[in-house]
Specification:
single chain, two-stranded antiparallel sheet, 9 helices, globular
Length: 208
């Protein structure tokens, strides 16, 4: 099934950040779990390119609930590390965990000739969960140890959003993880405040 069928996003700028983005609205009362089953995980792996498009279905069948549990655990680990690095320093034990994940050899990829004559990537063998997690972890290590990339890390300004992304925009003026998602929510909220400023004032007084 296509990745967009599960509302998966691939716009954070790095694979490791795209994995963190599979939970939406972490700071809200009702966070949304995007990896809520094996099929969304398969779609995410294809969407990131960790498993090349065109991979045989029997290869994808290796992705099971054990994979889902391990990828969710890695996601929560990366969420803690990235946010702590943006706000201060990640805890040593968490860094050791991501380093251990990165120590596994990544899967081998082969160039093969497609039916139309073009060269396409294919896995040399059935994917191993640890090997694919290693690719995500290595991406995180590369991101956090690159001063230029670290300097581009931004946290979304959305009220209930905790996503971190790479800001490669001109002038580094990007404010939201997605203009269509959090940016649109902010514009709608701003419009409502203009239409009903008294309601906004009452809400502020109630909260204080």
């Amino acid at each position: 099934m296509a990745a967009d069928a599960f509302a998966l996003r691939f716009d954070a700028g790095r694979i490791c950040l795209d994995l963190v983005a599979t939970v939406d609205g972490r700071l809200s009362e009702t966070p949304v779990e995007r990896l809520d089953g094996v099929e969304p995980l398969r779609a995410w792996l294809l969407g990131t390119g960790l498993i090349p498009h065109g991979t045989a279905r029997e290869v994808l069948d290796a992705v099971d609930t054990t994979w889902l549990t391990r990828f969710r655990a890695a996601r929560d680990l990366l969420h803690r590390i990235v946010h702590m690095e943006v706000e201060g320093r990640a805890a040593g034990p968490d860094l050791e965990r991501v380093n251990a994940l990165a120590a596994t050899a990544p899967p081998a990829v082969r160039a093969v000739r497609a039916t139309d004559g073009t060269l396409v990537a294919r896995l040399a063998a059935a994917p191993d969960c640890g090997a694919l997690l290693a690719q995500v972890a290595r991406d995180a290590v590369a991101l956090l140890t690159d001063p230029v990339a670290r300097g581009q890390l931004r946290r979304c300004e959305g009220e209930s959003c905790s996503l971190v992304y790479l800001d490669t925009s001109r002038g580094r003026r990007r404010r939201w993880c997605s203009s269509e998602v959090c940016g649109n929510r902010e514009r709608v909220a701003r419009h409502r405040r203009r239409l009903n400023p008294k309601h906004e004032q009452n809400m502020n007084e109630f909260q204080t």
